[in-house]
Amino acid sequence: GPYAGFKTGVAVLAFDRPHRIDFKPGYFLDGYLGYRFTNQFRFEGEISYQRSQAERHLHYLIPKKLEGHLNIWSCLANMIYDFNIDFPLKPYVGFGMGYAHACGHWKWDD
């Protein structure tokens, strides 16, 4: 049958190529809708959003103050197989495809 859920948490981002950008811990929001076809198989659609504030930028090992933030939107479609075992933890394996869009807004201070 159908099911739905929502998750939130701390987003920790790191960029290291070609320049290093350090981020403060941000947040993520995630909502999903799914349908369980059998005891083992289910299909799920998921939309999530992440936002993190930039802290500094290292360019050729020279630190520069960086103001701004990074937003990431993503959509996923997942097919999941649940292993029905008699244990408090319920393992599963899944396959998914998705799309993500990242958009940064920056201001460098010299």
Short description:
The protein has 110 residues and is mainly β.
Q: How would you sum up this structure, described in words?
A:
The protein is an all-beta fold. The chain has strands at 2-11, 14-15, 20-23, 26-36, 41-59, 62-82, 92-109. Strands 1, 2, 3, 4, 5, 6 and 7 form a 7-stranded antiparallel sheet that branches. The model has no long low-confidence stretch (mean pLDDT 88).
Q: What is this structure's SSE topology?
A:
Layout: E1 2-11, E2 14-15, E3 20-23, E4 26-36, E5 41-59, E6 62-82, E7 92-109
Query: What are the low-pLDDT stretches, counting only 5+ consecutive residues below 50?
Result: none
Roughly how many Å is the radius of gyration? 19 Å
Helix and strand run: EEEEEEE
* Overall average residue pLDDT: 88
From the spread of the alpha carbons, the general shape counts as: elongated
The main β sheet shows up as: 7 strands, antiparallel
Give the helix/strand class: mainly beta
- Percent of residues in helices comes to under 10%
Summed up, the helix count is 0
Give the percentage of residues in beta strands.
over 45%
Note the gap between the termini: 57 Å
Number of strands: 7
Quick tags:
mainly beta; 110 residues
